[in-house]
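Field reference: "sequence" (input) and "structure" (output). Example, N-acetylmuramoyl-L-alanine amidase:
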Amino acid sequence: MGTKKMITGLLILVFAVAQPAPAWAGAAKIVLDAGHGGSDPGAVGVNGLYEKTVNFDVVNRVKAILEGRGYEVALTRDSDIYLSLAQRVAITNSLAPDLFVSVHANAHTNPSINGSLVLYYDKDYPQADYPPSDAMAALTPESKRLAQLVQDAMVKSAGTVDRGLVPSAVYVARMGSVPSILVETAFLSNAGDAANLADADFRQKLAAGIAVGIEAYKPLEKPGAFADVSLSHWANEAILKLKNKGILEGEAGKYYPERALTRAEFVTMLERQFSLPEPAAAGGTTPGNATVTGSTYGGGSGGSQGTSAAAVKFKDLPASHWAYAVMQKAASTGILSGYEDGTIRPDKPLTRGEAAALIDRVIWPGSSQKATATVFKDVPLSLWSAASINRLKDKGIVEGATATTFAPERSMTRAEMAALLSRLIR
Ligand SMILES: [Zn+2]
């Protein structure tokens, strides 16, 4: 299957320092607008809290939540600066998002009034002096639906009084080009609401509710590969592809992409991708693949086992282990060796050096395991995996962690492994 050629280049992706990939082109794009800012504090709470500060905090919390779920989020302001209403709308129009949400906190002359409400432009309640853009008049049903979803979720999440939707000619809800709402989270003029707004936990609940409403209005068209691998994760495409091919699996809907890859997981993926060589007939005394015995794995110096399929036993690899069969197969054929203490450590993290050696053995079985030159300053000739690392480097397959180092002891993550293997599947 042209494996050597196919694998060339792919390890560069994994062994180079991972760079965040650009956001998924199809991600839903949201513009969030923190009301007021700079010289304009907005309402000032009975407790002295500035509306602009609260708005900014809530908006950033919504942003973090949505980005974590794979949304693309832009802010009209990402610092404490003054922006006119026209500037906010112009920024939004230039970004052409799927929707616009402006976040405010309310104030009323009656200090007993409290609760949450959402403003939207409604063509059924026009104000003659404040005509809407054509787009916003036409978008009335969409803005209203967004407003209701956000209001319902926010009230439910934060436990605020539900003051409902308010048709309004407010500028940012009237002059845009996409479904637009203005959220009034709570009343700074009310002692109870103002105290709540000063509390980060409350602001997080507001943000969570707003995010839920936005998600309900604009669900992601394509989910990430797993619940914990969002569309914007740099390895999402690779993980999704391998998931669909049955090469990798998650646990209860999660993939744990940043978790260190274990030795058993790595061998399992190699088996699924390459089909590891079958062990020699298990006759009990038949030697196995003699060309690779002795290349002990993981820094040990033994290598006495692995000469016979029947002789391969590891005290930490019971038959009940989920990867027992594939680990035994890999050990029988010398792809993977155990340690001097009789273990094979299936659940321990795999290092970059180990990964290089394993792939070397699968792709170029029987190659010399003696290094002849120092290529990376942290890969001395005496390092057990030096020959493999150097060979892959010579063939242009791996790069260092830096120009002069390889970081052979650093763990490989599950996301890095997925990115590597995905390149093998066209
Ligand atoms: Zn305001």
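Residues 35-36, 42, 51, 104 surround zinc ion (CB under 6 Å).
Residues 1-25, 282-310 have pLDDT under 50 and may be disordered.
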